[in-house]
Amino acid sequence: MRIGLNGGGGTIERMIEQAQQAEAEGFRALWYPSAVAGDPVAAMAAVGRETTSIELGTAVLQTYTAHPVLQANRAASAAFTMGRPGFTLGIGPSHEPVIHGMYGLSYATPGRHTEEYVEIVAALLHGRSVDHAGEELTLRGVTPQPLPQPVQLLVAALAPRLLRVAGAVADGTILWMGNARAVESHVAPRIGKAAAEAGRPSPRIVAGLPVAVHDDVAEARAVAARQFAVYGQLPNYQRILAHGGAAGPADAAIVGDEATVAAQLQGLVDAGATDVWAAIFPVGDDASGSRRRTRALLQELAAAG
Hints:
This protein is α/β, with parallel strands linked by helices. 47% of the residues lie in helices and 19% in strands. It is built from twelve helices and twelve strands. The strands form two sheets. It has an eight-stranded parallel barrel, surrounded by eight helices. It has a two-stranded antiparallel ribbon with strand order 6-7. A hairpin with a 4-residue loop joins strand 6 (130-133) and strand 7. Helix 7 runs parallel beside helix 11 (258-271). The N and C termini lie close together (4 Å).
């Protein structure tokens, strides 16, 4: 099973240490949110120089706050600095309360904006010059920065339009709060169809969910309900939760003893996920014990392939 973890913050030295440990333990990827180190890309590039094979991906960088040329150039710079393959650019439009409410930017057409944005970034990452006259973005004669190695492009795609874009234009999708039912019934059919119709390889589906090994399932779900409550309040996540038959983040979280959690993770893969992004969260009076149990199980599953 291809398993990745959350990429932690802190000092560069601490981030390098965390990545080296994850790599030694057999984890395949670390996924860094946009808030890490203020902007994770430079720190990830430094981490990449001190590791050998672990994938380092953004989950995710906001589209609205960076011009697509800047976004592609950031990825090129990270790939150059790392000096090895393994940098993955995950991008998405974020949410109306952030983009409009916090930053004061229009969030009127996130689907159209993201589709044009992804088309531009994908072209630049594939070494193609861009002339684009769209409804959202206009570029004239933009030439790409050379890439020393390929950079994969993933889209935070939860709705049909962006799932089509993720399959037809990008290398796949990186999900959050999409459980096995949502992957099987909603995500995999749409993104797979789009990739096939575009003549592209089978897309990646990176399924991110909270994970905790803990014997008291009710307690674990209560903790998940509190810790991840904000995701149940955002329309984009409400829709993907509904596709999974989950009333909220607590229902989508993967919790239980070792056997139960292992079965649920395998269920994600069986549903069509190519990668599991496990966001470990601690539960119970012995929170560190829960965390250790969870990481040990994930390490065992990662080692088993």
